[in-house]
Design a protein that fits this description.
alpha+beta; three-stranded antiparallel β-sheet; three-stranded mixed β-sheet; elongated; OsmC/Ohr_fam; KH_dom-like_a/b; OsmC/Ohrsf; OsmC family protein
Amino acid sequence: MGISLMECTVRWTGLSGMTFLAETGSGHVVAMDGAPDGGGRNLAPRPMEMVLLGTGGCTAYDVVLILRKSGQEIRDCEVKLTSERAEKDPKVFTKIHFHFIVTGVGIKPNLVERAIKLSHEKYCSATMMIEKTAEITHSFEVVEQS
C-alpha cells in the first residue's frame, strides 16, 4: 500500500484580527477565527473547534456507512460531542464524549453499539489520533421513525 497524502493551505486574511482561510485539497474553503480575548473577532469557528467537529464528522460517517452495510434502515444520524481541554498549554483535549442519536425504522441497538465500536477502534482516524491525549467515551439512543 502506498502513502495517502492530504494537503491544505491556511492563509491569514490580514493585519487586523486573527481570521484565517483554509483551502482543502478537494477545493473547499473554510474560515477560522480566534476568540476576541486572543485578537480574534469571533467571525468563524476556532481551530480547535474544527478539530472537534472533524472528529465528529469522521465517526458519524463511519457509523452511517456501517449501519447501511448492516442492512439497517437509517434515516438520520447525529452526534453531539462534549469535551474538556487541558488548563495549560498545549491545551489538548483531555476528555471527549460522543452521544449518537440514530433515527430509522427498526434500528437494532446492538448494531448501533457495534458500529460505534468499530468506528472508534478500527476506522475513525481522527478518533484514534485524539485518543492519544483524551479519554473517549460514548453513548447512544435510537429513535424509531414510522
